[in-house]
Amino acid sequence: xxxxxxxxxxxxxxxxxxxxxxxxxxxxxxxxxxxxxxxxxxxxxxxxxxxxxxxxxxxxxxxxxxxxxxxxxxxxxxxxxxxxxxxxxxxxxxxxxxxxxxxxxxxxxxxxxxxxxxxxxxxxxxxxxxxxxxxxxxxxxxxxxxxxxxxxxxxxxxxxxx
Length: 162
Description:
single chain; mainly beta; Thiol Ester Dehydrase, Chain A; six-stranded antiparallel sheet
C-alpha cells in the first residue's frame, strides 16, 4: 500500500488531499464517502475539509423530493469523516487503523444544505485520553455555520485491507 504524502510535523500543512488520496486513509467508498478534499491538516490539532453537494447525490432521491435537502445526519457523518482523517494522521501508518465514532455529545443544525452548496468543515482535536479522542467541529456554507458538533471517537486496528 502506498504511503500517505504527509509526514508527522509540528506545523500546519497546506497540502490539498483529493478524493483518491482520502480513500487511501479512510475506508469509506461511494456512496458513503462524503469528503472531496482536505485543504489543511495540522496533525494532532486540526483539519479543514470540503464536500461539494451536487444534485446527483443518491440521498436526494428520497429526502424531500422536489425540494432536496441534505440529511443533517449526513452532514454530521461528513464532519466525523474529516475528524477521522485528522485522528488517523496521529499514528505511524494511518492505513492500518480505523476511527469509530463512539459518542455525539452535542449536535446542532443551523441551516439547510441544498444542491450547489459547498460544505467547509473545520475541526479541532480537543483532547486525547484513554484511547478516546474528543473533537469539535463546524460545517459552513458561504461562511455561515450550518451545523456543529462535539463527538468522541476511538481508533482501532483495521482488520481487512481496504
